[in-house]
Design brief:
The structure holds 2 protein chains of 2 kinds.
Chain A lengths: L3 E2 L5 E4 L4 E7 L4 E9 L6 E7 L2 E5 L2 E6 L4 E6 L8 E9 L6 E2 L3 E6 L1
Parallel strand pairs in A: 2-11
Antiparallel strand pairs in A: 1-3, 3-8, 4-5, 4-9, 6-7, 7-8, 9-10, 9-11
Chain B lengths: L2 E5 L2 E4 L5 E8 L5 E7 L5 E9 L2 E4 L5 E7 L2 E6 L8 E8 L9 E2 L3 E5 L1
Parallel strand pairs in B: 2-11
Antiparallel strand pairs in B: 1-3, 3-8, 4-5, 4-9, 5-6, 7-8, 9-10, 9-11
The chains are: A mainly beta, B mainly beta.
Chain lengths: 111, 114
């Protein structure tokens, strides 16, 4: 079993839709959870960063962490064509240097 | 603000040739530095990380090596490339202090071994 599972998609939605992206994980020691956005042929860009359980909102983006279910989500409201990218979840435990990344979900937002 | 540079952006090399990819970070001191490889449809594979000058930890045994000759410079090398070394190589940095684990990535180098 992989430490982090992420559906690779592709996920195609119309402009203005609410997008839900998800990851599950197996290591209960993970405490830090991140979402990255990666445009084609570019490096990943940090979008959201949360610690432990709960929600965090930043503009159109909301990150949720449910540690009891080992499940994290990223919601994008009022999706735009410019949101079309691959979204990677990432997580790590306290200490150490290793961040575990999901394989990424490819999102297409159609105008 | 901090910026991270990688070069070259793209590289085509024959099998058996040497490799040198460079990464530099500006605007921060004593960062943690990382080299990742990203294969199509797969997650990021951590290759090396460094917490200081001359301090390199390897995550995956392979024909690649890394060096950190200066505080904000990280180099990925190989003496003889294999076809399987093709991929998208990403350098990243993070703040070297407790409680801060976000990593920030460079633009990447796309390597094709022919």
């Amino acid at each position: 079993q992989k430490e982090v599972e992420q559906d690779p998609g592709p996920l195609s939605v119309p402009e203005g839709a609410i997008v839900s992206l998800n990851c599950t994980y197996s290591n209960s020691a993970f405490q830090y959870f991140m979402w990255y956005r990666q445009y084609s042929r570019k490096g990943p860009e940090l979008l959201m960063y949360t610690y432990s359980s709960g929600n965090k909102e930043d503009g159109r983006f909301t990150a949720q962490v449910d540690k009891s279910s080992k499940y994290i989500s990223l919601f994008i409201r009022d999706s735009q064509p410019s949101d079309s990218a691959t979204y990677l979840c990432a997580m790590r435990n306290t200490g150490g240097f290793k961040t575990i990344f999901g394989a990424g979900t490819r999102l297409f937002v159609k105008a | 603000s901090q910026t991270i540079h990688q070069w070259p952006a793209t590289l085509v090399q024959p099998v058996g040739s040497p490799l040198s990819l460079e990464c530099t970070v500006e605007g921060t001191s004593n960062p943690n530095l990382y080299w990742y490889r990203q294969a199509a449809g797969r997650g990021l594979q951590l290759l090396f990380y460094s917490v200081g000058i001359g301090q390199i930890s390897s995550e995956v045994p392979q024909n690649l090596s890394a060096s950190r000759p200066q505080d904000r410079q990280f180099i990925l090398s190989s003496k003889k490339l294999l076809l399987s070394d093709s991929g998208f190589y990403l350098c990243a940095w993070s703040v070297n202090q407790g409680g801060s684990y976000e990593q920030y990535f460079g633009p990447g180098t796309r390597l094709t071994v022919t």
